[in-house]
Design brief:
By secondary structure, the chain is α/β, with parallel strands linked by helices. Helix content is about 25%, strand content about 20%. Strand 6, helix 2 and strand 7 form a beta-alpha-beta unit. The longest helix has 28 residues.
């Protein structure tokens, strides 16, 4: 199965004129520099084949060619030809460029499921690939390095969102696809999102319009009071019609982030510090009862242990959570989503039981990457 993923990145390219690889650091001296492109991801082999949109005469309104406009227009046409909503995906910690695109593509497979029934959601994917180092243990402090890069990448994510708004705003009504755009930020992607929101606010665009219909914050490696503070994630409430926060008390990765990195309690592990203070359009869903630790059977995953498995990556690995997210993306109101129980004293919903669904096996490929092709399936990081 091949999935198309549109992308933006502030990673440095090996060749600015004809990129064949994106590196583990930002472009030059300015982490806000952006490149846009389109990737075809083979979910069976893990091959990622991408092309980068051309840029020329940037800064000259009369002659400039912007890669963002080409990519947004291709996405618009896809959404017209194959009607479906778009999901804007921000990956987490320890993801290479190719792995981030692979992760985005797996979301399409997992959420679409089999067929087109009520628990299936077809999506077009747009991923922002910020310059994570893509390693867990290979640097003196890989977590700190990624955290700094995520923070510095926030304005680039904000620029991408504003460019998309400008593109849509410039369309004639008859050229619009009139589909919804959703947001999914996972793990450290929520930390990057904080600084994207700050950039949008600094540009005076906060509250200009609703950008996202559904915003999903999964396993958020953010402070537990982030949604209470407009300088953190609180201003997302002005850009999204509804925000759903998924938490898991057993999240092993966020436990490490909390206790060994000197961070406050994490939003994705403990939930909001003061639930009564979060914006009214925020819903919290506690996954702790249904998530179980997946047995590690692949030797390549042993060193990662639980970090690569369900307790942190449940947004794509756990059947019950995926079922819940699909219903959120379909726009069902909270009280109509099945398999939930409202806990009034905690101000959150709790998921009840695992619903087993068929799993799609993933084959591993020994083929060497081709030009502009890389394999992302073999390395499963936590983010």
């Amino acid at each position: 199965m091949t999935v198309r993923v549109y992308f933006a990145t502030n990673r440095c390219a090996d060749d600015p004129d004809d990129p064949t690889e994106f590196l583990d650091h930002a472009c030059g001296e300015d982490p806000q520099n952006l490149r846009f492109g389109i990737a075809e991801v083979d979910l069976d082999s893990g091959d990622v084949d991408f092309t980068v949109a051309a840029e020329s005469n940037v800064g000259d309104p009369e002659t400039q060619v912007l890669g963002s406009e080409e990519v947004f227009d291709r996405l618009r046409q896809d959404m017209l030809d194959d009607p479906a909503d778009c999901l804007f995906f921000i990956h987490g910690y320890a993801n290479s460029f190719e792995r981030a695109l692979y992760r985005a593509a797996t979301v399409s497979r997992f959420y679409r499921g089999i067929g087109s029934g009520p628990l299936s959601k077809k999506l077009h994917l747009f991923a922002f690939c910020w310059p994570s180092d893509g390693v867990l243990f290979g640097l003196p402090n890989a977590y700190r390095s990624d955290r700094i890069d995520a923070m510095l990448s926030g304005p680039a994510i904000g620029r991408t969102i504003l460019k998309a708004l400008d593109f849509v705003g410039g369309l004639r009504p008859e050229d619009r696809c009139n589909r919804r755009i959703h947001l999914l930020a996972h793990s450290m992607g929520n930390w990057a999102l904080r600084y994207a929101l700050q950039h949008i606010r600094d540009e005076g665009a906060l509250g200009r319009t609703i950008v996202f219909d559904q915003a999903i914050l999964a396993a958020a490696d953010e402070d537990d009071n982030a949604l209470e503070k407009t300088e953190k994630l609180g201003s997302l409430a002005a850009l999204a019609r509804r925000i759903t926060v998924y938490i898991n008390f057993q999240d092993a990765v966020l436990h490490v982030s909390d206790w060994t990195k000197g961070n406050p309690d994490r939003l994705g592990k403990s939930g909001p510090r003061r639930a009564e203070k979060v914006p009214a359009n925020v819903t919290v869903v506690n996954c702790s009862k249904v998530i179980t630790q997946k047995q590690v059977t692949d030797p390549e995953d042993v060193e990662l242990g639980d970090a690569s498995e369900t307790t942190h990556n449940y947004y794509r690995n756990d059947d019950t959570v995926r079922r819940d997210i699909v219903q959120v993306l379909k726009g069902l109101s909270d009280d109509l989503i099945d398999n939930r129980r409202w806990v009034a004293e905690k101000r959150y919903y709790t998921l009840q039981e695992i619903i087993a669904e068929p799993q799609v096996a993933r084959r591993r490929s020994s083929r060497r990457p081709r030009r502009r092709v890389a394999s992302a399936a073999r390395a499963e990081g936590p983010g």
